[in-house]
Amino acid sequence: MKRVMFAVDRGLVLSACVIVAACVLSGCDRAPAKERASIGDEPKDPNASLVSGGEQRDPRLVAAAEEARRRWPEFVDAFSQREPNVAYAVKLPFAVRGGGHEYMWIQVTLIDGDKIEGTLNNHPTQDVGVKEGDPVRGNVDDVYDWLIGRGRDNITGAFSLRALEEMQKEREARGR
Description:
The chain is of the alpha+beta class. It has helices at residues 10-26, 59-70, 72-80, 159-173; strands spanning 4-5, 37-38, 48-51, 54-57, 87-95, 101-112, 115-120, 135-139, 145-149, 155-157. Mean pLDDT is 75; it is low at 1-56.
């Protein structure tokens, strides 16, 4: 099983939506057209995670990814009718040098068939060959989650964030 990292810090989970919305408002979705970094082509296991310090498959994350995939047309429809000051973001896997993947949010700037382009909206915690703010691209088949943010209290999607927040609350309740 490949090692896959998910950020489960409650502050990070809650701030992810704020970061995406701030990105739209600040214009980082219009990053300069420099050479684009590609997301790795390694096989991935988006259902694996390092939660509570050990590798496991959490059914909440599996269900979140399945719901995001099932409802993908909803995101595409909303993106095709983009509104100003609304965040459109997807969570994609980035290959970690040495193996595994780190899942991070990108602010979407283009969906063209099965290709997605955007700007990396997370600070990688591992060596993935890109940094926050870099233009990146990926494949629709690799979308692990998506969100449409119309402000902190009006977010559609973000299925994995809800699951991760629930998992974090359980860890805190157990005293970890």
